[in-house]
Amino acid sequence: MRQPVLSNEKMAWTKLAVLKELPPGSLMEVEHGDDLVALCNVEGEVRAIHGVCPHHGGPLGEGALHGELIACPWHMWEFHSGTGACAFNASLKVPTFPVRVEDGDILVDLA
Ligand code: FES
To answer: Looking at ligand 1, which atom is closest to the CA of residue 72?
Structure first.
């Protein structure tokens, strides 16, 4: 049986930051065109989620990282950095993006 070929060809990796700017336990906001992306480092694992809160548009990347949860700075709604799920209503989600770190660069697939 033929195995599927795994490829990065359809991925759109974009460098958004460098790892040394995002130590474990930190959160940052990155502008990309008209979009905002929130990057965080959870115990060495870099994660990326859409940077605009679905409540009233707060900048998630300017909030706080509590373990794996990102707290919006405006009204403190929390979102899981890996799944994008809201902590008190899992059906409410913020989009998440694949991340890889290469030669100290943080690359995010925003496609
Ligand atoms: S705008 Fe994010 S919690 Fe209200």
So the answer is: 2
Full-model pTM: 0.90
Give 20-47 pLDDT, tens digit per residue.
Answer: 999 999 999 999 999 999 999 999 999 9
- Burial label, 16 (beta-carbon count in 10 A; 0-12, 13-18, 19+): buried
DSSP state letter for 21: G
Pocket test for ligand 1, best of 29, 36, 49, 56 (most atoms within 8 A of CB): 56
Name the CATH topology of 22-102: Rieske Iron-sulfur Protein (2.102.10)
Structural element, H or E, at residue 16: strand 13-18
- Residue 86 pairs with which residues in a beta bridge? 79
C-beta 75 within 6 A of ligand 1: yes
Q: What is the H or E stretch that residue 89 is in?
A: none
Which tokens go with 50?
């859409």
Domain limits, the chain: 22-102
